[in-house]
Write a structure and sequence with these properties.
With 187 residues, this protein is of the alpha/beta class. The chain has helices at 25-28, 45-55, 119-133, 148-156; strands at 32-36, 61-65, 71-72, 75-76, 90-92, 95-98, 103-106, 138-144, 160-163, 169-175.
Length: 187
């Protein structure tokens, strides 16, 4: 008589993919959400996102991320996504407009289990479309030097990757008006 196969919680051993995990659960049914750029400033995107999550409970934990605040709307805030004490299913980023130079900075975070599925590319294409709609000249982002996946996504969408004074960070930059159109991704 054969011994039954021991079940493992590690999906690497589930070669037949019998465990049904929808990769979109992290987006549509997250257990935790990080709001990057959370703010208490009235009418800001960061405050609106955070307030909507608080006002419409989804059954998970909310982690405001803001390097300048210890708490936002009475919720403990974290300086970076890396300081959040739990694995985050969904991170909400934003496009921050710099009015004086008609440009913006963007932030995108895709959880490890959702990487290599086109989510980062989709988010960045949508941000590019918003940038065109807002008639911005340039958008930029600081990317960790070892985040080769995001650097590749940026390069494929026409961003120029440059070194910075900080050896742990590179800057991605694109002239929005000159970049390839993503009109097919607009809502």
């Amino acid at each position: 008589m054969q011994k039954p196969i021991q079940q493992s919680s590690d999906r690497a051993y589930d070669i037949l993919r019998t465990e049904k995990v929808n990769p979109l659960n992290a987006i549509f049914a997250p257990k935790s959400v990080a709001v990057i750029g959370a703010s208490e400033k009235a009418d800001s995107v960061g405050r609106t996102l955070l307030w909507n999550l608080i006002s419409n409970p989804f059954g998970g934990t909310i982690f405001p991320v803001n390097p300048k605040r210890h708490s936002i709307l009475r919720i403990k805030a974290y300086p970076t996504i890396f300081d959040v004490p739990e694995l985050v299913d969904l991170a909400v980023g934003r496009l921050s407009k710099i009015h004086s130079i008609n440009a913006a900075e963007f932030a995108i975070v895709v959880s490890d289990r959702c990487q290599c599925q086109g989510i980062g590319t989709e988010l960045l294409q949508r941000l590019l479309q918003v940038s065109r709609d807002e008639q911005l000249n340039t958008i930029t982002a600081d990317i960790l030097v070892d985040n080769y996946g995001m650097q590749k996504v940026c390069e494929e969408l026409g961003f120029r990757i440059q070194r910075t004074d900080d050896p742990t960070v590179v800057k991605a930059q694109i002239e929005v008006k000159k970049s390839p159109s993503t009109a097919e991704f607009s809502d």
